[in-house]
Amino acid sequence: MWLNRTLLISFLLLTSQYVAANQSHNSSQPDIQHKAQRIVALAPHIVENLFAIGAGGKIVGTVEYADYPEQALEISRIGGYHGIQLEKLLALKPDLVIAWQTGNKKADLEKIEKLGIRVVYSETNDLTKVSEQLIKFGKLTGHQAQAKQVAKEFDARLAKLQSQYQDAKSLDVFYQLWPEPMMSVNKNTMIHQVLSICQVNNVFAQSRADYPQISIENVLKFKPQVIVLPEEKTKKDVQHTNWQDWPQIPAVEHQQFIRVNADLLHRFSVRALDGVADLCDKLSQSRRYYQEQS
Questions:
Q1: Signal peptide location in the record (predicted)?
Q2: Are residues 128 and 47 in the same domain?
Q3: Is the model's pTM score more than 0.90?
């Protein structure tokens, strides 16, 4: 009981200090002229992009799975997908929180904003917008020059990849986002955009949900020529699909399985293009295989 009371008092004191210090501040309209010095980054891709522009040293708190670059492992953890520990966040005394609306709990973000802490949001649905995010982060942190250079290099590499595969022959591809429950992606997602760069047909592109939950029967219906299996770091016990039980699927019959690094392809960061290049190259190998078979 004594410990709980002590923690409660500590939390209330920290809360009152933040409210008093920030009561006149409007976090919904952040002042980009104020250069952040103590940042809490609430997603791995935010951490990566801040380090990419040379602002990683200003991050004082982050979430689970923020593991790149190596220096990121030394940053204090204040929560993860299941929620943010608000007391830990307040103790770090951030002057800026960069959040991810899709990956952070809405209730947690509302609490942070009500405390008057400046919050900026990162959007992650369009790969072509990574450069805009880099420039935005550069303005927030005072790293404009480096951010502009990194953004320019990102855009140039993206354009090169788009050009490299624009005339490639298409393949029917199933991107198995998650095995249990089995999930894929539709045309509204960044992963679909990546598949389009590689010039292949996402068989679940027309699904109503962005991340549709599907069955083996659905996959059987579309008969994909290739199955992409992202390998993701997780603490969960993952039940993998035994695809060899379904040889009537062309990808299984011809053993066309592609394994990719989810940390690259699923993060809205500069490194995403490493994942795109790897996926497109492996899909080209599958493309050549089918050409040789015909």
A1: 1-21
A2: yes
A3: no
